[in-house]
Specification:
This protein is α/β, with parallel strands linked by helices. It contains eight helices and seven strands. The protein has a single domain, classed as Glycerol-3-phosphate (1)-acyltransferase, CATH 3.40.1130.
């Protein structure tokens, strides 16, 4: 019975997503272009996030360990094991930011418009050259005053119970641009909704618990400090992920 309810709710989430794609296709196609494309995209994504999470019965419980300086640019690093991580980020971080997302998203209708219009940045994981090019694009977005969101694990498998070792890209970018790291821990999104291709997993309404940590300064750091910065960020997120509260 539990699996049937979970599967039914899974189908409901899929139906909501399809309806939102149909609803937002026109505004995205028409408004996400030209000099106002970043501002318009931010508004559209926030509305999409707010209403889709509301209809899915997902409430957001966010704890900020310090006040977020919205005038500061960040490299935002979060653990990633659910598509809710992407959806909810638009409600958590009240800034204009670019997602670095796997290139497979270019196959997703409607969502791919954001990547094709330069709002977000596709990451081609099958090519080191093209993967390096995405960091160049990320630097250009930072120069425009935008923050960058990266999931440094680089992916997940539903069978995994621990975070993957972080990849270097986010921390190389932070050091090269002198942009601080902002760690974010998604504590239980995996329990609410995981891989859209896994029909047997938990899919249910609930409270998504999120912790936004103090930022990690990269002042006076260089490439020699990359590993330490990476491990420090990993430990901050992982410690919160394993805590009971």
């Amino acid at each position: 019975m539990k699996k049937f309810i979970s599967f039914s709710f899974f189908l409901y989430i899929g139906f909501i997503y399809i309806i939102f794609c149909i609803t937002f296709w026109g505004p995205i196609f028409l408004l996400v272009r030209g000099k106002n494309k970043y501002k318009n995209a931010k508004k559209i994504k926030f509305l999409w996030s707010k209403w889709m999470s509301f209809l899915a019965g997902v409430k957001l419980d966010t704890v900020f360990l310090s006040k977020l300086d919205l005038q500061k640019k960040y490299i935002i690093c979060a653990n990633h094991k659910s598509y809710l991580d992407i959806l909810l980020m638009y409600q958590i971080i009240d800034q204009d930011f670019a997602f670095l997302g796997k290139s497979e998203i270019l196959k997703w209708p409607v969502i791919n418009i954001f990547f094709k219009r330069g709002i977000d940045i596709p990451v081609y994981r099958d090519s080191k050259t093209r993967a390096a090019e995405c960091l160049v694009l990320a630097k250009k977005e930072i120069q425009k005053g935008r923050s960058i969101i990266i999931f440094p694990e680089g992916g997940w498998e539903n069978s995994e119970t621990e975070m993957r070792r972080f990849k270097n890209g986010a921390f190389q970018l932070a050091i090269d641009t002198n942009c601080p790291i902002l760690p974010v821990t998604f504590k239980n999104n995996y329990d609410l909704f995981k891989d859209h291709k896994d029909f047997s997993g938990n899919t249910k309404p609930g409270v998504a618990k999120v912790v936004v940590h103090d930022y990690i300064s990269v002042d006076n750091l260089n490439r020699k400090d990359l590993v330490n910065l990476r491990e420090q960020t990993f430990q901050v997120i992982n410690k919160e992920l394993k805590s009971e509260n």
